[in-house]
Amino acid sequence: MEPIDLNTLKAQAAVELKRLEAQATAKEVAAKAIGKTAIIWIFLLVLVGVVSSAFLNTEALPAVIGLVATATMALIQMVNGIVNETKKEEKPEITIIKELIGRLDKPERQEASMKVSVEGDKVTVQRGDDVISTKG
Asked: What integer pLDDT is reported at residue 2 of this predicted model?
C-alpha cells in the first residue's frame, strides 16, 4: 500500500470543496455571505448611532439615528428573509391538474364521465367516485 501524500490529499479536498461550492444556488451563496458578516454590520451601525449621539448636536441627531435604524432594519429583514424561507403555495389549477393526471391513468376510471363545476373561486372536478376541489 502506497503512503498517502498529504499535499495530494489537501488538493483533492480543495477540488471537491470547490466543486460543491460551484453547485450551490445563488440564494445559498448570498445566505453564506450575509451570514458571515451580518452581525458585524449590525453592530457597526448601532455603534455609529451611539457615537453620533455623543458628538452631534440635537438638531442633526434624529436624522442620523433614523438612517441608522432604517439601515439596521433593512439588514435584519434581509437576514430574516434568507433564514425564514416560505414556500409559495401552488395555484389551485396546477394542483387540480396534477391530481387529475395521476387519476386519469387509472384503468377503472377510463369509462367514467367527468364533471367540472365553478362557483366563484371554488373549482370542483368529479370523475366517477373521485372528487377534487379547491379551497375557495
From this structure: 66
